[in-house]
Amino acid sequence: MAIYNLGSINADYFYHVPHLPGPGETLAATSMSRGLGGKGANMSVAAARAGAHTAHIGAVGGDGKWAIDRMTEFGVDTRHITTLTDTPMGQALIYVDDAGENSIVLLNGANFQIPKQTIASALSEASPGDTLLMQNETLSQLETAKMARSLDLYIAYAAAPFDAAAVTAALPYLDFLILNEVEAAQLEEATGKTPEALGVTDVIITLGANGARWIHSGTARDFPAMPVTPVDTTGAGDTFTGYILAARDRGLPMEQCIALAMRAGALMVTRQGTADVIPDLKDVDEARF
């Protein structure tokens, strides 16, 4: 079994500030660092570190070889990442305050120019029952979902950054949908349907410090969060998603998948950074909460 992830790859530039800047405010950062990020790359690294064979489908600019090398080091299959020499790679400017909260500015770059042939070539290797994972930091999600449905893949969608039209269009093809509490309310307003009525077999709503809610075939169950003091919340949701799908890919029941992902997400928020600090399965198993 394998996970094929159509997803973004970013250079994350972290600026640590005393508080998140308001309109018109100029702040002095106390430090700056660069790391691998993008919701897609984060989820691929998380799934690979959780033990799943994970093939990333994406693109970087001519300045992105380091990102491909880093993903390979973390165990991701990078054969389906295209280098576009005349395009900058995606970037994220991330401001993190003393409480661990963040605000992010994105440059799409090569993430919006993934060749359709790259996607088709990757999925031509997939087998029935494999997983297709997508987010909203790339294009071609709907076409890719249709292709995946014809190949009998399990289709998972992380609805962030949230776009009601994009999510609504994809709904008929989805087996798994994950979104946060605000996004769930926005989707309900856009569709007129509660999460239980969307027709998606598995819907997971992340609730931050309150844990997560799993809705399976219309029936909801809540999972409490682990008690930790956050240092940086960036990438925690991506880690959670990657771990759930990796555990499912290994054949675990969804309850166990979520419980494992809760531990991974909790451990992630105690670390500073994104893809570079996503915990591996050994870290998660040995963590004490």
Which structural class should the secondary elements be placed in?
alpha/beta
Main-sheet strand order equals 5-4-1-8-9-10-11-12-13
What is the rounded distance between the termini?
31 Å
* CATH domain class name: Alpha Beta
Major sheet: size, sense and barrel closure? Answer: 9 strands, mixed
What radius of gyration results from the CA coordinates?
A: 18 Å
Give the overall average pLDDT.
Answer: 95
Number of domains: 1
CATH superfamily: Ribokinase
Poorly predicted regions are none
Strand content: 25-35%
Q: How many beta strands in the DSSP annotation?
A: 13
Number of helices: 9
Reported CATH architecture: 3-Layer(aba) Sandwich
Tell me the CATH topology. UDP-N-acetylmuramoyl-L-alanine:D-glutamate ligase
- The coarse overall form would be globular
Helix fraction, binned, reads 25-40%
Q: In sequence order, what are the helices and strands, one letter per element? A: EEEHEHEEEHEHEHEHEEEHHH
